[in-house]
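From the shared-data thread, chain only:
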Amino acid sequence: MVFAKEASSSSQLLPPLPREDTPLLGKASHLSSQPKTFANVFIAIVGAGVLGLPYTFKKTGWVFGLLMILAVSILTYHCMMLLVYTRRKLESLQGFSKINSFGDLGFSVCGSTGRIAVDVMIVLSQAGFCVSYLIFIANTLAYVFNSSVPTILWFKPKTFYIWSFFPFQLGLNSIPTLTHLAPLSIFADVVDIGAMGVVMVEDILIFVKQQPALMAFGGLNVFFYGLGVAVYAFEGIGMALPLESETRDKDKFGRILGLSMIFISLMYGGFGALGYFAFGDETKDIITTNLGNSLVSILVQLGLCVNLFFTFPLMMNPVYEVFERRFFGGQYCLWQRWVVVLMVSLLALSVPNFADFLSLVGSSVCVILGFVLPALFHLMVFKEDVGFGGLALDAVIVVIGLIIAVSGTWSSLMEILAVTV
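Structure, as tokens:
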């Protein structure tokens, strides 16, 4: 989706700027082994959304929450494989490979309309991720350093911290290539895994002491809310095609992806359930704020803040790529990047709750990008090659995805507005 000319989806014509599917460490000289592919899938999917799972389990109930994680993981795996199967089918007809990204696939199936649809969803989802990052960082720092202070220099703590980050984010987001940001990505992933491990151990120790009352099922009124957060947590659908391209043994990619999804699902389920088990009805929207002000807790929270602060420009890079390709002829545009950072910061100021915003992004753009578009593209390409059952399954995913998108977006907006009113 990042070609210089809209009318061409050939990988023979490449722009000077990084593509949405450009590996963070540059072009690999060798294809990935199975263990490396497993690790790449883990890195592509696991993100900040996991931090909102314990609060979501509080609202949905722990059994309901686990079932949602299971269902979303299976559907995410299925839809990622639909993208792979669709590309393989198109490339078998064309005789050579020219589909490198989700946007390329959209163009091959639906022309400019398909590419635009993917572009819009990627811009909204990536920007949404970054809004949630700013909310998490600002709320966490306010909790750690200013929990008893109502204002800082006449600003609310959250407002103060977001505007304090602003000039530094302008600098980081001015970096034109992903290559220079690659070390930040590696650091972010290490911090993520370490923080999750520390939090889960703390949760177990607290649960053994407190054993609060727990709810198994929260009712259907929070069904779409929970689905939104779960879908958000399984981010990474846009990396399915690049990951498969970099796999040495492509026939085993589906198996590796399946094993990765099983591992991630178990980790997500454990993290969400243990967080809720430890604190019960006192579980907060950002689980790390439940851990108190011990040295370990503060270090974990600050580590996550640093992680997300430096992940922000990485996640915004696909947004800049889309804007620069569509409106600036593929040329680097500094002022456009600064305007986008400003808009994201202003939106973060207006959203009070971290988990509520995760649900909103997950229910709206992530559902369309992760479920509706892969099933729709697969349906259009295979409509003459699969039986009624295959067509019906694709159609059901599209319809259910649209229902979740509409209902989940409404449910999440109501939660956000209920807090702000």
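The radius of gyration is 21 Å.
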